[in-house]
Specification:
The protein has 104 residues and is α+β, with helices and mostly antiparallel strands. Helix content is 38%, strand content 28%. It has a four-stranded antiparallel sheet.
């Protein structure tokens, strides 16, 4: 399983947050436009982040009247919220930012 870069994980979280309240959005007018919109905005991210297995997905579907979004987040095989993924990023960013003292 590939390693996930912190920037990729942050980018996915931003994409996740972009679709809050999507049910009330107006979808594209044509059928081909709706299918294109679904394809462009449905994403998945799977890999390891500091030893933890991360599986995230955002699945976008459009009807003639509404935009439907299904999101899922799993960390080490357990369903989690995106808040726990954000906390994971923050925890490891803090570890990376802190310089490691050299042993003498």
């Amino acid at each position: 399983m590939p390693e996930i870069a912190t920037q990729d994980l942050k980018s996915f979280v931003e994409h996740w947050n972009k679709f809050k309240g999507a049910y009330f959005w107006t979808p594209p007018g044509s059928s081909s436009g709706r299918r294109s919109y679904e394809k462009q905005n449905s994403r998945a991210l799977t890999g390891r982040y500091f030893g933890k297995e991360i599986n995230l997905s955002v699945d976008v579907g459009c009807s003639c009247k509404n935009v439907y979004v299904t999101k899922s987040a799993c960390v080490d095989g357990e369903k989690k919220t995106i808040a726990s993924v954000k906390a994971l990023i923050k925890r490891y960013e803090h570890c990376i930012a802190r310089p490691v003292s050299e042993t003498e």
